[in-house]
Amino acid sequence: MELWREIFIHGMNMFNLIIVSYFFIGNGVYTLLMVLSLATVWLYNRRLAYQSLDEIRESSVTPPVTIVIPAWNEEQIVLETTSSVLRTDYPEVEVVVVDDGSTDSTLRRLVEHFHLIKMDLIYRPHLPTKPVRGFYMNPDMPNLLVVSKERGGKPDALNAGINMCRTPYFCTLDADSILEPDALLRLMRPVIHSPVNTVASGGIVRVMNGCQVRDGRVTKVALPKSRLERFQVVEYLRSFLFGRTGWDLLGGTLIVSGAFAVFHRETVMEVGGFSQDTVTEDMDLIVQMHHWAVKNKRRLKMSFTSDPVCWTECPATLKMLGKQRRRWQLGLCQTLWKHSEMLFNRKYGLVGNFSFPFHLYVEALGAVVEFLGYFMVPLAIIFAMVPARLYLLFVLLSLAYGGLLSIGAVLLEELTYRRYPGYRDLATLLWFAFIENIGYRQLVLYYRFEGVLRFLTGSRHWEKVTHVGVAQ
Amino acid sequence: MPFLIEHVTVVVFALFTFLLLGNLFLVGIVIVRRKRRQRFFERLDALRERYGPVIAGVLSGRIAYEQGLWELREIAGTDRLFMLERLCLENRPASVEEPVLRRLCEDLGLVKTWQERLAGQMDKTSLRRALMDPPGWFIRVRFLSFLIRSKSAENLGLIRHGPSWPLLAKALEDPSPDLQGVAARALAAIRHPGSFPALVERLHKAVLEPGLLLSVRTLKSALVGFPLECARELLPSLRHANPRIRFLAADVVREMVEREAAGNPDFCLDQQSGNEELATAFLTKLAFDVNPDVRAQAAYVIACLADPRSGPVLLGLLKDSVWFVRLHAVRALAREKFASHAGRVETALRDSNWRVREAAVRALRAFGPAGLDRLMAHFLTTEDRYSQEQIADEFQRAGLIPQLVAQCAADGNGQETAVLSRLVEMGKTSYITSLLDLGEGNRELRRQFLRNLGKKSAPQIPQWVRPVALPVPDSGIRPQAPSTLAPKHPNGTKG
Amino acid sequence: MPPFKNRIGLSLLMILAGVSLWEFCLRPVTGPTFAAAVNEYRNHNYQQSLKLLHRAYEIDPNNTSVLTLMGWDYLKTRQPDRALQKFSRAHRLAPHSADTILGYADTEITLEHYQHATRLLGLLGHEKKDSADVEMAWGALYQLTGRDQDAAREFERVLALRHNDALAMENLRQIYNLEGSVSPASLRRGSG
User: Which of A318, B332, C7, C137 yields a CA-CA distance of 20 to 30 A from B399?
Assistant: First the structure.
């Protein structure tokens, strides 16, 4: 009995050491990202004052872009997305919608609405995909092509789109997302102005729930009604304005959201396109590009800018939220595991020695540590190993710190883009930023923990998040 | 020093209090910021409402200049210049309004301020002023001054203030990459010939000194904005030892020439005075450059020359060893004036690279009906499968199938019928089938089509006639389908 | 790929190994030093005990057992002020520790802070009624506050629990002005 007690005490001590380290390291890095991001985003926003889009819009040097939209059973929204994309403000844009074996009327709606005709075009599968069933075009609208293929999953659909892409850059866009008119111009700006080959450029994804959408445009920005969605608004602000910006500044970008990003086609083809190995093919591609750059001794740049905006629908129910977060966590673990050779590998510079370890230990494994901590630490109190008062203070401290990060994100939004003009909306955002860490964070943590468990048990199932059209 | 638990508790409690106060502080900033912005926009809106029509009136000539100027001078306050800047430059002026806008900005003192700021002559502002005046902070904090200098450079470019070009040219050397980029764009907007060499020199540096933070694309974009007359300044670059510089220079000239040619189909570079040397450089040197990128760019320029040597040189590029040179050569030939070279372009239909084949197809189409005839003839006679595929692709993408189908229906023995037969043999039937789909409007078309195509003995024809014709309720067409589907004697007659 | 061949797996193993190394080998522990100090205390080597406890204190200054024993050592070496510091801190950290409360109370009695001593002893309540040390403390408190009868009762209880407790006997002799050993009979004669 005494032996078991000893083992238990030692085990608790070890876990406490891990959790304290996780707390300080994780929050330390978040603090760093926050500080860097505050300065960067603010400064970038100031720089926008003299970075007119007219020059990009009118210049003959601006490269053409193909927007690839993979779609599976998106009959509710695919027309709106496609229409909005066709009206995008960019000098030369082509659109490829890939119908990935939809069982609903996605394809039929596209064909009817745009008067498309089935054609037997040449298909050059530089990237292997499932068989293509047909191509649909309207000769009077030569910049729109719809590809119908057998179901192969999102990466497969994207690869099919890339195979049909004839421009040096392509932009991935989720079928349930809506671009702002000048989003592509803004997204291409860092590509055009960079002295180094920019192979990936990501923009910000915002929550469309609660907004008014008309003719494929967000006409009025508003907060959603439900608490769950409001929390996600704050979360998206924090993760994009802080996380992505901070990593971009440090040069440690590991994630560019596939919902809205531009890639250099040739580079993507050289790395083999989007892989089916993981459920987060966007992150996998970015990491794969890092590999490729190191292996071929090339200098690449990946950028994130906070002004190009893509609106997307976030999960409105707990069930859907759970599916989404499990998938993200599962994909994160899969990607990190797949590319584990980058961990603390000097060849990969800051990405391998800072960004990768952070995503592994804090983002991926941190979910496990934090989740278990909610059970282990109370046990430690019961066994008088940790003073209850001190523990309570630490909990309050972490809540306050989490609130600081979230409120900081709202502040950053206020300093820069101010998409939510009403005072009421601002007050709501601040309130939800404050209480995000009481309940919502723990819920998401549970889903993330489930995601890690799925990874450990070898699950590869893509959980589809169905959309209900929550914009007004 | 022992780490006492009371200290830890105090520290944690202090941290918690600090963070809580920090949160409240941030919330306070957010609210204060919102209120300030609201006041700012209210003021701006009020000024816009009051003076916006004045500015518009002055620019359009409806309001007398002096009167408008006098009214605008009424605007007061520490942010006077900032507000004037916003009001004057909010809308992009039409070209006829530009001279008036320039004069207005000069008389209001804006140009002087922008020039001073661009040159870095800014008095260090007081803290109070910095808090009240929007750009105050950027003047006060030195490393942020590039923001205000860049904005000043942009403003000078927006109004195309010619006399400011030396300042902007100097700004190309500024340590701030933002200012370099803005200065390049402003110079492109102003288009003063005197600034062109500075941009060219900067382009050289961008290539030769890879550490520079200004992108080549930005410089290129700036250079192509200049009139063609400036292209002569690129001659030394076209002869430079560095192949990338030669390529970029050739690319810039190409863009300029294409811009001119777009507006004037008969444009010829060598017929413009002063461009003879440039034309000769392209014809005799660049078309044979060791760098394939240079040769590729040269093709377009050579296509815009009246010199009799241009034709053979261009055709020579069609046989270049590098595919993208051939590609650009074919694209350069895609003009009606080169219709006489259709035979040579046709050879590109058999190129090993699909992009060249595709470009050749488009080039032949660009030659008009004669080019299309040649294309169809090639399609029918060639054994090259890739060439056939490429042409079939283009027929579909370009929407030529309806024309072919209509022609086949009208004249069953024409080239169009043969093309359609070949398309059917290749399995490219989807488009045709869609056209002949159920629908009253296509009734006659279907009838004629079945009659004409039904004569063909290719085995694939019944395969798609069946789904098209048999379900048709039209009593006039239905009987035709079985006869089309009936087995044929080897000599081609039905029996 | 097997986990142990993978960098992630290896790094996790290394982290686990590192934490284990710290926990089992490197982390300074007070256990042995404290045990030795207890030994010295029991052998009445209070200075030596203090020396050892100072070392333990450096390792873990928040250990209430260490603080309490230091208090006892200071009390035994007639340094009640220092003892008070230790006991009061230990009591703040572990308010329910009986040993600490007792030492704290004894120190307060020594320093003639009788009210506080009464409150402290009151915390021990009924649970410690059968503790000779607690009874002794109560006895001392009553005696010093002039409540001899109550004091005598407590000392008798001490003797009931610890028959040959010299201090209890001595205190009873003082109360009853008796010579020699104290027995129930002599107590009745004395009280009579």
Answer: B332
Q: How confident is the model at residue B137 (pLDDT cuts 50, 70, 90)?
A: low
E-state strands within C30-79: none
Q: Which chains touch B (3 or more CB pairs under 8 A)?
A: A, C
Pick among B36, B217, B247 to test the A interface (most A CBs inside 10 A): B217
CA–CA distance, B125 with B115 (Å, rounded to integer): 17
CB contact under 8 A, C8 and A13: no
Interface of A with B in 111-170 (CB under 8 A): 117-122, 124, 134, 137, 139-140, 142
A409 to chain C, minimum CA–CA distance in Å? 32
ipTM, 2 dp: 0.86
C20 in reach of chain A (CB within 8 A): yes
Contact A329, A367 (CB under 8 A): yes
Residue C8, Cβ density class (10 Å: 0-12 exposed, 13-18 middle, ≥19 buried): buried
For the segment C27-65, what is each residue's pLDDT rounded down to a tens digit? 777 788 899 999 999 999 999 999 999 999 888 888 889
Put simply, the answer to whether B22 touches A404 (Cβ < 8 Å) is yes
- Whether pLDDT at B490 is above 50: no
Residue A380 reports pLDDT greater than 50 = yes
* Cα C135 from Cα C153, distance rounded (Å): 9
Q: Taking all residues of chain C, what is their mean pLDDT, rounded to a whole number?
A: 86
Of the listed ranges A440-454, B320-334, C168-182, the least confidently predicted one is: C168-182
Q: Which residues of A touch C23 (CB under 8 A)?
A: 10, 13-14, 17
What is the distance in angstroms between the Cα of B384 and the nearest Cα belonging to chain A? 15
Q: Which of A62, A120, A242 to mutate to test the interface with B (most CBs of B within 10 A)?
A: A120
- CATH entry 1.25.40 includes domain B128-216: no
Is the Cβ pair C8, A340 closer than 8 Å? yes
From residue C80, alpha-carbon distances to B31, B382, C61, C74 in Å are: 58, 114, 20, 6
Tokens in use for C127? Answer: 């649970």
Strand partners, A94: A66
- Whether residue B1 is predicted with pLDDT greater than 60 in this model: the reply is no
Question: What is the helix (H) or strand (E) element at residue A41, kind and residue range?
Answer: helix A2-47
pLDDT score of A77: 86
Q: Identify the pLDDT of residue B270.
A: 80
Confidence of residue B348 (pLDDT cuts 50, 70, 90): very high
Each residue of A170-182: pLDDT tens digit? Answer: 999 999 898 899 9
Q: What is the pLDDT of residue B493?
A: 43
Cα separations in angstroms, B87 against A154, A330, A417, B50, B77: 48, 52, 21, 11, 15
CA-based diameter of chain C, in Å? 93
Distances (CA, A) of B302 to B128, B290, B299, B343, C33: 62, 17, 5, 19, 94
Q: How far is B5 from chain C (nearest CA, A)?
A: 6
Residue B134 has pLDDT above 60, yes or no: no
Mean pLDDT value across residues A440-466? 86
Question: Partners of A173 in the beta sheet?
Answer: A260
CA distance B243 to B248: 9
Chain C residues whose C-beta sits inside 8 Å of any chain B C-beta: 57-58, 61-62, 92-93
pLDDT 10s digits, A83-130: 989 999 999 999 999 999 999 999 999 999 999 999 999 999 999 999
Domains of chain C are 1-96 (1.25.40.10)
What is the distance in angstroms between the CA of the first residue and the CA of the last residue of chain A?
63
CA distance linking residue A329 with residue A372, whole number of Å: 16
One-letter amino acid identity for A411? L
Instruction: Compute the nearest-CA separation of A14 from chain C (Å).
Output: 6
Task: Domain ranges for chain B, please list them.
Answer: 128-216, 403-495
